[in-house]
Inverse folding.
């Protein structure tokens, strides 16, 4: 059980996302989860061992470390990634529920059911409309909220995104104001800035996706009001072609993101 | 043999669960198992090495650590995850038993081997009660063993061979406290889900039973 399991769960959501959603997913996997696992974890690996205070007083180092790092950067990022990925599960659950309903209809022998067999229902990709649109939009909204909350928590807890070399600590039992030195401060600053930058890119992608969905929704509505006779077959063919292209793009991206493990 | 086994087990149970049951499985996977493996385990990784006492007396640190942490919080967390996930196995076994029975008698004995009715309903309800029971037991154990869910920075220890009441410092107490509160919150959410699933199933099947007997009476 590791990040690979999350990748498997989210990979299923990929089929039902918009193109921007697929880009977001790729950015999440490659520039956040993978970087966290292969690089960032090593940088923060020895953090308390190499956190050194200029004192022989037992306990001073522990207390100062706890005072300056209430929760480690790496753990906060791990929690951020988990929370930011979970709204996509709402979409997965909604799709699973729809599939279940269609299968039930098919089994009952409903005339309205347009599928020939169960396999077709399983393989079908649902369009983002109706109640699925609402689920999808709320999942993007929650993603945005979680990203913003964690970025703010970072900024608030660590007074900005820089990691200082030296911290002055006077918490008890340190006998006086003691100098404490953080290990690898520059490398940690670089990774912190990198993760914040990628977080911001993800926020922008989410905002763009939200705007795209809203614009599409309002355009469709105004088209329906303006032109009650629309041609569903023509729309479906064009959208199916676009979806196929998107799937080709995302499949080629997915092939480069093959099972990584922590 | 690792957490992957538990993940496969729970994926197998997913098929025979209600909607609420599937939400429970998703929460256990993501907010408990995944958080444990990728974050919480590393917080407690060097807890004994980083536990420091203000003394040079050999053995004092060991004895004090053992006194304050009879079973490490992270091990209790792992045990809780395992015990809370296993009652679902009862349902899997019962379904397998049903399928076996159908094979042996070479005829369709049930409407669907995986449908929650009759004996399988009882098994499912028992598994829900056991899951909730284990969650509550572990939360109470946590509370009793560690005097609440707070992790203090400093503990005073006067066990032999420590020469007097010695100051001992726990490493990363704030981070540990945050993760413990996270554990309690997710446990609480799982308890609420289990209780609502239990009520939902009891309500659904009593209504079904009632309408059946009512329609029989009418006939």
């Amino acid at each position: 059980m590791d990040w690979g399991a999350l990748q498997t769960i989210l990979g299923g959501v990929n089929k039902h996302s918009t193109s921007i959603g697929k880009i977001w997913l790729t950015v999440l996997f490659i520039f956040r989860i993978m970087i966290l696992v292969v690089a960032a974890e090593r940088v923060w690996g020895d953090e308390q061992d190499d956190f050194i205070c200029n004192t022989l007083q037992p306990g001073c180092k522990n207390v100062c470390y706890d005072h300056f790092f209430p929760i480690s950067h790496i753990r906060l990022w791990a929690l951020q990634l988990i929370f930011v990925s979970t709204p996509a599960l709402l979409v997965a659950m909604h799709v699973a529920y729809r599939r279940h309903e269609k299968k039930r209809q098919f089994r009952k022998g409903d005339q309205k059911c347009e599928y020939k067999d169960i396999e077709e229902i399983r393989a079908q990709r649902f369009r983002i409309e109706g109640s699925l649109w609402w689920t999808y939009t709320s999942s993007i909204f929650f993603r945005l909220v979680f990203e913003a909350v964690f970025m703010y928590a970072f900024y608030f807890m660590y007074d900005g995104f820089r990691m200082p070399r030296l911290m002055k600590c006077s918490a008890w039992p340190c006998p006086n104001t003691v100098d404490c030195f953080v290990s690898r401060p520059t490398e940690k600053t670089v990774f912190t800035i990198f993760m914040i930058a990628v977080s911001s890119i993800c926020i922008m992608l989410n905002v763009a996706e939200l705007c795209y969905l809203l614009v599409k929704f309002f355009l469709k509505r105004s088209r329906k009001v303006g032109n009650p006779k629309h041609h569903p077959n023509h729309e479906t063919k064009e959208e199916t072609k676009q979806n196929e292209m998107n799937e080709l793009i995302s499949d080629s991206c997915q092939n480069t993101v093959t099972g990584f493990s922590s | 043999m690792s957490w992957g086994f538990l993940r496969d087990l729970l994926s197998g149970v997913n098929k025979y669960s209600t909607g609420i049951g599937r939400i429970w499985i998703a929460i256990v996977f993501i907010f408990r198992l995944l958080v444990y493996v990728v974050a919480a385990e590393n917080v407690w990784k060097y807890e004994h090495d980083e536990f420091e006492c203000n003394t040079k007396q050999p053995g004092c640190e060991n004895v004090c650590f053992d006194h304050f942490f009879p079973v490490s919080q992270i091990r209790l967390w792992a045990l809780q995850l395992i015990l809370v996930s296993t009652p679902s196995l009862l349902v899997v076994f019962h379904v397998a038993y049903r399928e076996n029975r159908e094979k042996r008698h070479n005829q369709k004995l049930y409407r669907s081997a995986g449908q929650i009715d009759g004996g399988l309903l009882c098994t499912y309800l028992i598994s829900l009660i056991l899951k909730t029971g284990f969650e509550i037991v572990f939360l109470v154990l946590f509370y009793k063993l560690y005097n609440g869910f707070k992790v203090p920075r400093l503990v005073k220890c006067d066990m032999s061979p420590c020469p007097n009441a010695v100051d001992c410092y726990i490493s990363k107490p704030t981070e540990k406290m945050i993760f413990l509160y996270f554990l309690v919150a997710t446990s609480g959410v799982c308890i609420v889900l289990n209780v609502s699933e239990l009520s939902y199933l009891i309500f659904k099947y009593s209504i079904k039973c009632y309408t059946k007997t009512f329609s029989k009476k009418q006939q």
Summary: Chain B has one domain: 18-204. The mean pLDDT of chain B is 89.
